[in-house]
## 1
Amino acid sequence: MSAGSGNGADIDTQATAWAVRSAERPLDSAEQQQLDAWLESDGRHLGAYVRAQALWLDIDRIAALDGGTQRDVPAPVRERPWGRYAMAASVALAAFGGTVAYDHWAGRISTERGEVRRIALEDGSILTLNGSSAVQVRYEDDIRRIILRRGEASFEVAHNKQRPFVVSAEGLDVRAVGTEFVVGIEDGGVEVTVEEGVVAVGGKASGAVQPRYIRRNEQFVAAATGPRKAVLDAADVERRIAWRNGVLVFNGQQLGAAAEEVNRYSNLRVVIEDPTLARAEFMGVFKLGDAQAFAGAAAEAFNGEVVRRGDELVLVRQQNSPSH
């Protein structure tokens, strides 16, 4: 096992080998020095080694449990080959687990409910992460890749023709050079909204072999029902990205959808059980997380009232409302 830094998969493979060897028997002094040198040679090695040990312990525990169910089975005549195959399979599984962990956690940045983070990336690009969202930053020599795992993120991309900037989300690849755009994962699919410049969307989820070009004030949606493209007015684009400035803007959206957006930023949830009320169109501007202000304004607008129920603000119509 060399002490070279390597990529993430190489590191996980070496970490797994060390974890297996350490679990089998005490390391001799030479091996211990080699392990210590490897751990100190790269800041990523210790974390990979700890993960590999945890995976190995899990495998060991499963093997022990499985052994308990096999007590009544006669002992096999030849145990050593089975042991080697089991060991090989365990090592492969541990290496696979390490690779999966690397794929899903390396370079990960996430936000909690109601949290909006603005992050300057190493190339000068700006990433703004909406609440309850997560991305992975994977910068390499020839490409700057961001993987959107959940939620929504806005990008102000620094110009660099030699290192394309690509955002990947659920099978959709959004490629940009010197532009501003937002990518979000919603129940209806992946949405790409362009504020400035041009992006090219591709990948399996785009529904086309050739890239599709989306320009300023245009939106592309990759949905289960098929991809679609729409032209937005500038005011609608500004409304959609207002969360970056700490506010939510509603201008004719249905009250139920507006409440869902408010709930994204608050542990105090707004609940609308009346379907006719949920479909009513609503206007207003509110601070992120201010669920009480939203519920109060909606109640006043629709002759309703707000009933507190634990961590919920239930919006109902008053009994003397014209709709009853």
## 2
Amino acid sequence: MAGVHVSTTINGDPAEFVCEANEPLLDVLRNRLGLTGAKEGCGTGDCGACSITLDGELVCSCLVLGAEANGRKIETIEGMADGDKLHPLQRKFIEHAALQCGICTPGFLIAARALLKKNANPTEEEIRFGLAGNLCRCTGYDKIVRAVQDAAREMRGA
């Protein structure tokens, strides 16, 4: 079977790859491009461990085909920090101990960033709703919610 040639932008950089027509974007990112930040948790879009943004919209990369990324803009956890400078959400997750094993953390960070891009001052309920597609089995959600609230305050300059 011939592969599908895809031209896209990943974390601001142009990228090209060839994938199988039925190959999930998660597999392309991890196995073909070496971007292993997105994790496969469930493979059915229920856990959010594979969250990325595609043209600014939060998606589960296990549910998107690599071929669907053609001409689109992908953002992954690898592009979240600015060089050695962590994104405020990354720093606040560390400060609030909002992570443990790390499997779910990249997905939570991507989902939280997508939330804060749409709503810079979310309520606790809005944060919990915005992160409802991401599951954590280790830390519980209170530390994650507090980290997002703190990052939102910092990003607003409040």
